[in-house]
Amino acid sequence: MMKRLVLAGAMALLSSAGAARAEAGFVCPETPAPITTLSYGSRYTADSKTRSDLDEVSDAEVNAALQPVEAFISRLSRLANDAMTDPSPPKAECVAQWLAGWADAGALSSLDTMNVKLSMPARFAGMAIALLQAETVAPVDPGKRQRIVAWLTAQALAMQDFFDNSAPKNASRNNLRAWAGLASAAIGRFDNNRQLLDWATRSFELVTCQANPDGSLPLEMGRATRALSYQLHATAPLVVTAELLRPTGYDGYAACDGKLRSIADFSFAAAQDPKRVEAIAGKRQTLQTGEQDLEPYMLAWVEPFLRAVPDSRINALVNRFRPLAHAKLGGNLTKIGDWIARRPVPTS
């Protein structure tokens, strides 16, 4: 028995030493080139009243314009996730280094079209969440942090002004507003910025309280063949916003007479049976026609939802899709668990 204990202790020391060597050998990759200007139009045809008929040329142009931003957020999210699961202070600092590079360059400061302004909040959310995650591992360089938070806060304030005063009527109340609320919540969590957190709360309730009794979101149900896709797309930021706001004392599941749970229940049930949305929207859904497949990222929000509302049936049904990952929601949400609870709320 003593020999086995000595051997186990020696193996543990070797393992620890190996981990230390690997950690010491980590070199932060070069920061991806910042994107300062974006300009693109709509993905949909000009005559599509439901904003559901894709213009293939325009769609390709939008994807090409967004590709470097999407790649940056995807890599940043993986880096932040790795920092948490090691845990690795050098990787956490690397997240800050990358974001500071974009902040110092004034990245995404020239958003030249309405469609860019509508779609950027989801990207800002992904960036902010990556740094929030890094800070659960270790404090990052204060100077870098200050520059990043100032940059993201300026972006959030411009975003708020746009959605409050200039965004199209439906866009100011639908899934796009939900993503803007998520961005405001994530950025507000850095230093407990009440202006950002309050706007996030108002945005959350603006979208959530609209839900029909069955949990369907009326503005998403008006998207014809893409109604289910947009229902899922709206549910994701609502659930994660509720999680981000929970440590500040706000209960998103109690707001609007508990409609967030209804929204989530409807979304998951409809993902399993798109006919539920077809009966409301009057159109076969892209998940029925084969134009789209149900992919794990569409259900990434289920992980934080199940922590708030445990449901063994949903847990079993979603297991075949795991790991559930979505870079703009925080990456691999199956892998990182309830990271939000591990991050304290600032007092100022």
List keywords for this structure.
2% strand; 348 residues; two-stranded parallel ribbon
Total number of beta strands: 4
Strand order of the largest sheet: 1-2
Report how far the terminal alpha carbons are from each other.
Answer: 54 Å
Stretches where pLDDT is under 50 for at least 5 consecutive residues are 1-22
Largest sheet: 2 strands, parallel
- The helix/strand series, from N terminus to C terminus, equals HEHHEHHHHHHHHHHHEEH
**The number of domains:** 1
Report Rg. 21 Å
**What is the molecular shape?**
globular
Number of helices: 15
Explain the overall architecture.
44% of the residues are buried. The chain has 15 helices and four strands. A hairpin with a 4-residue loop joins strand 3 (325-326) and strand 4 (331-332). The model is unreliable at 1-22 (pLDDT under 50). The termini are far apart. The protein has a single domain, classed as Glycosyltransferase, CATH 1.50.10. With 348 residues, it is mainly α. It has a two-stranded parallel sheet with strand order 1-2.
